[in-house]
């Protein structure tokens, strides 16, 4: 099977989406982002980082050959998350999935290798995203090539953010 140039709407095989619960008390709230007893050992995070995205700004689309991303969208803004199954061997190859996540719908999203992904801050505030991938960025001591195929500048790309 070849890689698709057109995508249909649906849910993507191997993408895990789980609501994040906020536990409230008089001090504020707490949310568990991940627990080792709830994660497949193959996607266990090896590093973590936060990113801030300004309102209206998008990150991606890009994909990884080996890395699985473990995103958590908690706020203080909202995001439109775009996923495209670009894996020729996947039963959902050619499927596009869109999620809404953030302060109004806190979500954890596991994105496996070969699933092209992007997100746009659709809220009015700066948005914070947590990611805990299962591979080190640029490998041990940052001495390896970065596992990323970027599609942002690709002419005629099928990975369009609307």
TrEMBL record:
Query: What protein does this entry describe?
Result: dTDP-4-dehydrorhamnose 3,5-epimerase
The catalytic activity of this protein is classed by the Enzyme Commission as 5.1.3.13
Please give the catalytic activity noted in the UniProt record: dTDP-4-dehydro-6-deoxy-alpha-D-glucose = dTDP-4-dehydro-beta-L-rhamnose
Q: Which domain of life is it from?
A: Bacteria
Q: What does this protein do?
A: Catalyzes the epimerization of the C3' and C5'positions of dTDP-6-deoxy-D-xylo-4-hexulose, forming dTDP-6-deoxy-L-lyxo-4-hexulose.
| Pfam families cross-referenced by the UniProt entry | dTDP_sugar_isom
Query: SUPFAM superfamilies attached here?
Result: RmlC-like cupins
For region Disordered, the annotated ranges are: 141-162
Name the residue ranges with Basic and acidic residues bias.
141-154
């Amino acid at each position: 099977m070849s890689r698709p140039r057109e995508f249909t709407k649906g849910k993507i095989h191997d993408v895990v989406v789980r609501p994040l619960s906020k536990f409230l008390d008089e001090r504020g709230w707490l949310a568990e982002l991940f627990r080792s007893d709830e994660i497949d050992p193959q996607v266990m995070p090896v590093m973590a980082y936060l990113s801030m995205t300004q309102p209206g700004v998008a990150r991606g689309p890009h994909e990884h050959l080996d890395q699985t991303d473990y995103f958590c969208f908690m706020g203080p803004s909202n995001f439109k998350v775009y996923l495209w199954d670009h894996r020729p061997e996947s039963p959902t190859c050619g499927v596009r999935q869109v999620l809404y996540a953030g302060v109004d719908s806190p979500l954890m999203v596991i994105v496996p290798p070969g699933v092209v992904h992007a997100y746009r801050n659709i809220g009015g505030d700066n948005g914070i995203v947590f990611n805990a991938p299962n591979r080190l960025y640029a490998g041990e001591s940052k001495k390896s090539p970065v596992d990323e195929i970027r599609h942002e500048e690709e002419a005629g790309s099928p990975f369009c953010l609307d």
